[in-house]
Amino acid sequence: MAAAKARDEDQSRGGGSEGETMSASTAASTALHHIGELITSNPAAVTSVEPVDDGWLVEVEVLEERRIPSSSDLLALYEIELDLGGDLLAYRRTKRYPRGRTDLVNGAR
Question: What is the edge-to-edge ordering of all strands in the sheet holding 55-65?
Fold first, then answer.
């Protein structure tokens, strides 16, 4: 009975048996679920989802430190790797930055 309940919970958050494929939106919500269990900060938004050879790579923005005024909050980007069934393979913080900061892309000024 407990095993069936755990399997149902796993499938409801995107996990499934081998060979199943999940949609990008399911991968995103599954990644949010996993990161919410691993860190104490608040996930704010999914910023990217992309399929990779063995699953999904999802990037999540997290509010790491709330400050007053909110324009000085500290945010971070986390990269979450999921297998095809939605199981967590790895996660890492890739960037930490103050809210409102823009990055220069391709040498733009």
Answer: 42-52, 55-65, 74-83, 88-98
pLDDT tens, the chain, 109 aa long: 333 333 344 444 444 444 457 999 999 999 999 999 999 998 989 999 999 999 999 999 999 998 888 888 899 999 999 999 999 999 999 999 998 775 634 444 3
Using DSSP, state whether 100 is helix, strand or coil: coil
Largest CA distance in the chain: 60
Give 24's contacts (C-beta < 8 A, 6+ positions apart).
Answer: 49, 51, 56
Model pTM score: 0.72
User: CA 19 to CA 23: how far, in whole Å?
Assistant: 13
- Do 60 and 47 form a contact (C-beta atoms < 8 A)? yes
Alpha-carbon distance of 31 to 43, in angstroms, equals 10
